[in-house]
Every structure is written in C-alpha cells, then in structure tokens.
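Readers outside the structure-tokenisation community will struggle with the description of the input data as it stands. For illustration, here is how one protein appears when written out as sequence plus structure tokens:
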Amino acid sequence: MRTSVALLSSLLILVLFEGVCSMKKGRKKTKNREKSKVHFSTEYDLVQDLLTNYDPIVRPRYNSSETVVVRIRFSLQQIYDLDEKRQILAISGWLTAEWLDEFLMWDPEEYGNISSLVLDPRHIWTPSLAIGNSADRMFQTYRHFWITVRSTGEARWQPGGTFAFTCALDMNYYPFDNQYCTMEVETWHYNSEKLQFNISKHEFGLETYLQHGEWEVYKTLVRYENVEYKYYQDEQFPEVFFSIFIRRKYTFYFMYILLPCIMLSFVLLMTFLLPADSGEKVNLGVSILVAFSVFLLIVAEKVPDTSDAVPIIAIYLMYFMAITALSVMASTIVLKLHFKGSEKKPPKWLQSFVFDCLAPLLCQKSHTHWHTKQQLRNSITMTFVSSPSENECKPMKEVCACSETESERGSADEKAKREKITQEWKKIAEVIDHLFFCTFLFLIILPLGGLVVFAHIFHTTESDIK
C-alpha cells in the first residue's frame, strides 16, 4: 500500500515538473517569435530579396549587350595644397556617380512603401572609378561611402576625400602665374562598349567651396572623351577630365619679396651719393648684393628644380644682383680716380670729355666753371716770365736774395701744382660718380616700369575672365 502511494506521488511530481518545463519553453518560443518579428522587418526582407543571387561583378543589365551609362560630376570643397616642387595638386571634394541598376528594382507597395535603400558598395555593382593621373593611389578606398538606391533602380554614389594628382606647372610668371590642372577620372575595367560616362554638369559644383589663402579659382571645366591607347587595338576607354583654372594671389609675395627688393634697389643708389672719403661705398654695395642673394634663395626654395622655365621674379632678382655687382665695380672705379693723387696729371682728352661734355649734360656746371678758372690761372702763370738782364744789373747780394726767393716760390708753386692735380682727379671722380648715379637710376626704373605694365595686363586679363 505504501509502495503504491509513493509511486503515485512520484508520478504526480514528474507530471507537475514537465508542465512547468513546457510552460517555460512556451514562453521562450513566444519571446523568440517576438524577437524574430522585430529583426525580420520589411526592409530586411527587401534587402534579402534584392541581394539574394546578386553578383556585384556582373554589370546591372539583363541584356548583356547594353551599355551602362554613368552620370558623373564633381563638387569642390577646398584646394588643399599645390606642391610646386613635386608638381602635385591636392583638392578635397566628392564625386557623384549615378546609374541605373536593373537588378535593384522593386514595387514599394509590396514592401511597406519603402522607396529607397542605403546599401554597402561591397555588395552591389559599382563603376570602379580610378584617378588616372593620381599622385597617391589610383584606386581609392571608397567602401565607407554607401550607395543610395531607389525603387526605380537609380543608384547614387558619392565618394569623397582628398584627391591628389599630378599637374604640369608653368612657373614662367611666378608669382603672377595662372595654373591649369586636370584630374582624369576613368573606369579601369570597362571599355566604351560596356560603360559610358555622361556629364551632368560642365563645371565643378562650388556650392560648398571654401576660399583658399593663396589660390583663386576663376574657372572650371568638365569634358568627356573616349580615349584610344596604342597598346589596345580597336578599343576605346571612357574618361572624364575635370579641369581647374587657378590664379595665385600675389599680395604676400609683393609685400615680403618684391617690395623689399625695390627698396634695396633704391638704397643701392646711395652708394653713389656717399662721399668717397667715407670709405663705405663698396661696403654698402656688397651688403646689398648679399641681401639680393638671400631673396634669390627664398625664391629658389619655392620653384621646381627644372631648367624648362625661369620665373620672372628670379629674373628680376638676378637682374638686380647684376646691377649691384656693376655698382660695386663702378664705385671701385670712382675710388680709384678719387685717390689717384698728384703723380700723374689727367689727360687732356679726359678733362675735355668730363668737364666740357659730361658736366654740362649732368647739370654739373660748377665743375665746368672750376675747370675754366684753373685754365685761366694756368695761362696767366705761363705768361709771367722774369727777365735775366734785370738780374745782371743788380748787385751780387740782391741776386742771391732773389734766387732764394725764387726757390721758395718754386717749391710753393710745385705744391700748388700737386694740389691742383689732386683736385682735378677728385672733380673728375665726382662727375663720373654722378654719371653712374643717373645710369643706375635709369636701370632701376626700367624694370619697375615693366613690372607695372605687366601687373596692369595681369589685372586686365583677370577682369576679362571674370
């Protein structure tokens, strides 16, 4: 009896335990169903239906003979950098590529009125864009930029970032230069029969462009072309050329390079106004020559290492370096004439050329008058000759006294003659120094006039372009 009661109680306990377990399992199933309903949403079902059996390698056309047309444009955000040494232009912005994917079409009414999706570019077909003249990597990593797909099959992809590409620079007119650079966008895998580009805008999008401190964008151009290469026979490849025309803002270079050079060039004229006795004429010229060399080194650091083009600013600095070197030579000649001394009298042709021709021409008439007075004194001195008969009539003592007086007078005359020769050399040096001053003033103003004319033409061209 007791055994039967124990068996019944144990069976009852087992039944109760199974009931509790079944209740827990039922709750878990209901929870899992609720979770599955949340996870498997309409959008999930749509994505699964679209990407099932979708191969991203196959072009999105049911008819394989049809060409995929990709509309492309570029929006410029900023000019990042232009490396003149390496001849590389880096810009930031984004490409916009749009095409029709026939494998990604659906009826929005069947999927909860969902009209667009955002898909991973690794899972669907993309035109595999490449920068043909890239300075970094030809194929950029664009997997972080997802693709927006509409129910009609229209796909829009907007990869962005920094695009660095090579650019052949024309540095002839640096820093008054305009540069023209082109970014070549192409598809590396398809020829023109498989894929074609279509330009949606013939210029860059500048809605979000940020102004650059050194460069100004004055024109952009977009053109499309089927390029044929020699090593691919009877095949053409689609390419889009994004060209940007930029102009350098030269205010910085004018303030910190050109203006100091202009000021130094006028300080150079002071070497011809300094007195020769000061001993600083040559030192000043050499100091200015060193300053021009420093400015030339600054310019050389910015200009590409090439012999194809010499910038106008380098020619300008080299010109003034040559002028400064010539001024040092001219100052040396003036010092040589100034300290010629009384050993040798100036030649008559030199006196005639300096005092009769140069001095009146250079408005140095005081030197001409001084030379005329000296000639008159020389003529008066030459006409005074003492008579020997008078000395013979005088006593011996008076003759001796006269001879002593004449010797003293002769030494004084010799000293005065030497001083007169020294003064003649100094006056000649002063006239020639003034001649050099006028000559170098003309040589300095001449390139400045050319610079002003060039700046006027530069601004006129700028206004015409705008």
About this structure: DSSP finds nine helices and eleven strands in the chain.
